[in-house]
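Subject: Predicted fold for Amidophosphoribosyltransferase, 497 residues

User T.R. writes:
Posting the sequence so we have a shared reference for the thread.
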Amino acid sequence: MNPDHFTTLDLDSHSNEPTHQEERPDKPEEACGVFGIYAPSEDVAKLTYFGLFALQHRGQESAGIATFEGEKVHLHKDMGLVSQVFNETILSQLPGTIGIGHNRYSTTGSSRRVNAQPAVVETRLGKLALAHNGNLVNTVQLREELVNDNINLVTTTDSEMIAYAIAQQVNAGADWQDAAIQAFHRCKGAYSLVIGTPVGIMGVRDPNGIRPLVIGTLGENPVRYVLASETCGLDIIGADYLRDVEPGEMVWITEAGMASYHWIEQPERKLCVFEMIYFARPDSLMHNETLYSYRMRLGRRLAEESPVDADIVFGVPDSGIPAAIGYSQASGITYAEGLIKNRYVGRTFIQPTQAMREQGIRMKLNPLKDVLMGKKVIIIDDSIVRGTTSRKLVKALRDAGAVEVHMRISSPPVTHPCFYGIDTDSQDQLIAARMSVAEIAEQLEVDSLAYLSWEGMLEETREDTDNFCSACFTGNYPVAIPENVKRSKLVLEKVTV
Ligand code: SF4
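User M.O. replies:
I've generated the C-alpha cells; pasting them so everyone works from the same file.
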C-alpha cells in the first residue's frame, strides 16, 4: 500500500472514528458534511470528491456525489468512507457542470444505503439533488403533511422531506428560488443545505445558522463558486474563502453569478458552539480565525480557572492538543506528548479479542511510558460525554507510571442531548446529567477534575456570547423542541426550554 494514501486519509483531526469493535464512540458525533460546486469546464466530480475528502470528519457512514449535465443527473452514493465509495472510474462516470456532495453520519433514519445522500427528486423543472447537514425538529408534522399530499417518501430521512417540500412548490408552479423559500418556511430546526438543479446551485442556512456553511470562489475569469460545510473543504481544491452563508440566507448561483435572498425577517445567530470546540477541523476558519486559535485560548482560560500543580500537560490526540498547548503556555507547565495516536487505524472490520477489548483504548491511543513514569500529569480533553473512554484513559496513564492524573476539560459539562444534528446520546447516558463533578472525578479515578466555565467557553469566542447555541450545556434550546421529539432523548423534568 502506498503510505501517502494513509497519511492523507488521516485528515480527520478527531479521536472519534467509529470502529466496528466498539459499541459506540464516547464522543458526540457530527451529522454530515456538504459540498457544492458550480464550475462549467471543470471536473466537478473530482473537485467534489476532494471537498468531501476534506470534510470526512463530519460523517463516515456514507458518501455521495450527484452531478448535473444539463437536465441529466448522474448519481453515485454508497456506505463507507469517501475513499472507499469512489475511485477514478466512478468519478469519470459523473460528468457535468454542477456537483453536489455529501458525507453522512446518520442522526435521523437508520444507517442504510437508501438513506445516503444527496437525495434526488424529480420536479416539473427537472431534477433536484439535495445535501443536508443538521436535523429538523418538526419531521413528524412535515412527514404527515407530505404523506397527506400523496407524496411517496422513499427514505426515512428529513433531508428527503425537504427535497419533496421544494419539489411540491415547483410542481405547483413556483420557480426554483420561490419554491425553495416556501419550503424552508415549513422546516424547523437545523439545516445547512446545498441543492443542485439543472440551472444552478443553492446554499442555505436555517434562520439560526446552527450548522456552518461557507462560500468560496475558484479562479477569476469567470469566477466559479463553491459551497462547503467548512473552509477546509475549500482549501483542498484551492478555492478562496469569500464569506459565510448568513443565517436565514439563501444564495443562488447560476450562469449569471451569485444572488442572495434573505428569506426570513429576523434571523438570530445561534451557531453550534460545539462546532468550534470539537467538531470542525482545527484548520477551518470561523470568525476570521482558525479554530486552532480558539481552542488554544480555551486551554489558557482553563489554566486560569482551574490551576493545578503538575510536571507535564498533554492533550488527548488530536482534538485535545490545542487546548493543552494553551494550558501549558498560561501555566508554565511543560507540554509533552503522553499519548500517541495510532494514525493508521481508521476503521477496522475485524473484531478484537476479548483481552484487547478490555484494554479498550489501546487500539487508538498508546501511553508513552518514558514520558509518564513517576510524573504528575494533566490530561486535557475537549469534552466528556459518557465517560467510558476517559476512565480507560486514566487507567492506562496510571499503568504507564503516572503518579497523579489531573483531568481538565476545555468545555463545560454536557448535561443535555442535541436535537440539531449531533448525536450526543439521550440525557440519561450523559455522565454529567447524572453526576456532580466530584462524583465524575471519583468514577474516572482521577486526582482532580475541572471543566471550563460556560462563560469562559463563550467569552473566548470573542464574539457576542448570545450568538451561539450552547443547549447541550444548559438545556436552553434556541429552536423549541416538540414534546414527542423531546421524549425520545430527554429526562423531561430536568429541562428548561
Ligand atoms: S445542542 Fe450542543 S451540539 Fe447541539 S447544536 Fe446546540 S451547542 Fe451544538
